[in-house]
Design goal:
Largest sheet: 4 strands, antiparallel
Structural class: alpha+beta
Radius of gyration: 28 Å
Helix content: 40-55%
Order of helices and strands: HEHEHHEEEEHH
Distance between the termini: 90 Å
Number of strands: 6
């Protein structure tokens, strides 16, 4: 039942991370260390990282959660839907207003069941990351998030850095790339830096658009 999931959290939390990100970045930083305060201090000393507020990651539903949600929507399907259908038939006889109300209630319970079933099919749910123990830094063209979960600093999220946000990140990338090499022996390539808008325009035109134009219009005479 849904009530059994209130404040529930699996003993081991598994996060939903794209395979490309999972294969590129280590799943845990400072593996074996158990003092989160010391690890966060090391991150601050070695990385150009931030502490994002109210960040959400996705974790996998465990077997207990799936069973409880399934039980919830099965009970609703067996008990509530037939009840709403009977109310609908009675409402038709009494008044259009009552009929309309019953139809809305039926639609609502079916929507609730559909949403619960969709949640089970999706198999994931939002996971609130601790702003105190979650860090984000730029590396290899990604924003990478590590958070203190399962007793270790765990890779919980990764996302491509949008083109519009890249220009201010190169100094961060350099420092973070060096930190990964110095601390963990992991080498990442330097990401190609963006081209200035003026340079890009000239490159697209292939030449200075004003080259070849006469400074003195009288020369054409």
């Amino acid at each position: 039942m849904i009530a059994n999931l209130r404040d529930y959290e699996p003993s081991i939390i598994e996060f939903v991370i794209p395979e490309a990100i999972r294969e590129t970045f280590p799943p845990v930083l400072f593996e074996g260390s158990t003092n989160v305060d010391e690890i966060i201090k090391l991150v601050n000393e070695n990385f150009n990282a931030t502490f994002p507020e109210s960040e959400i990651s996705q974790r996998v539903l465990d077997a207990f959660e799936i069973d409880e949600i399934r039980e919830e929507y099965c009970i609703k399907q067996e008990n509530e839907v037939p009840k709403r259908e009977r109310e609908l038939l009675e409402a038709i006889e009494r008044a259009k207003k009552i009929k309309s109300d019953a139809q809305e209630r039926l639609a609502a319970i079916k929507t609730e069941i559909k949403d619960l079933a969709a949640e089970v099919k999706k198999g994931t749910k939002d996971y609130q990351l601790s702003s105190k123990n979650t860090v984000r830094f730029a590396l290899n063209g990604y924003f990478i998030y590590y958070s203190w979960v399962n007793g270790q600093l765990t890779l919980v999220k990764g996302e491509k850095i949008p083109a519009w946000d890249k220009r201010s990140l190169w100094a961060q990338e350099d420092r973070n790339r060096k930190a990964m090499l110095d601390l963990f022996g992991l080498e990442y390539p330097e990401v190609e830096r963006p081209v200035d808008d003026e340079d890009a325009l000239s490159e697209d035109l292939g030449e200075n658009p004003f080259d070849g134009e006469d400074d003195d219009p009288e020369d054409d005479e």
